[in-house]
Design brief:
- The structure is a single chain.
- The protein is α+β, with helices and mostly antiparallel strands.
- 30% of the residues are buried.
- A hairpin with a 2-residue loop joins strand 2 and strand 3.
- Strands 1, 2, 3, 4, 5, 6, 7 and 8 form an eight-stranded antiparallel beta sheet that branches.
């Protein structure tokens, strides 16, 4: 799935309704629009992943003016470290990671806006996709999606208000430029 198309869909889904509005969102201390490359490197593990909620996640960070604009993480193939931090871990399912992160962020930020929709696999199995969204008073956004491209993959997305505005302006300009 094209990341731009995916993000545009998330933008549409997350724009309406009342939900918790914390003062300032963060993911393991990373605040959008404030965190630097150095701050991000502090949560990067020796596996080249990012330690979030006790799980090693595959993430990509984008920066604007050397500040965190977006943290995009996939919750597939996440590893949970053992309590003794021996370096051994076990693979955790996307469902486990999503539930853990959702519960953790609900405790931290309050109730999110939750959207649910039915999705169908190629073989006809039906599943419920859950999208939880928090927006802070600065306009930064945190989104957790239980199912993304397939049932084994979810998403954690943290975006700065500046990034959201830039994406909205870009999408608006793209729509204007289309001729039919």
């Amino acid at each position: 799935m094209n990341k731009s198309f995916f993000l545009a869909g998330l933008l549409y889904i997350s724009m309406s309704g009342a939900f918790a509005q914390p003062e300032k969102l963060d993911v393991v201390g990373l605040v959008p629009g404030e965190a630097t490359v150095g701050d991000i490197s502090k949560i990067k593990t020796r596996l080249g992943r990012y330690l979030i909620g006790g799980y090693h996640l595959n993430c990509e960070a984008d920066f604007t003016n050397q500040k965190l604009a977006e943290l995009f993480c996939k919750t597939d193939f996440a590893f949970l470290m053992d309590a003794d931090e021996s370096g051994r871990g076990r693979e955790a399912s996307n469902i486990e990671v999503h539930r853990t992160l959702l519960e953790g962020y609900q405790n931290k930020f309050g109730a999110p806006k939750i959207e649910s929709e039915d999705v169908q696999t190629r073989v006809g199995l039906h599943h419920k996709r859950e999208i939880a969204t928090w927006v802070d008073k600065l306009g930064n956004r945190l989104i957790l999606m239980s199912i993304a491209n397939n049932i084994n993959q979810g998403i954690l997305l943290l975006q700065s208000a500046e990034k959201i505005s830039a994406d909205e302006a870009k999408e608006k300009n793209q729509k204007k430029s289309r001729e039919f």
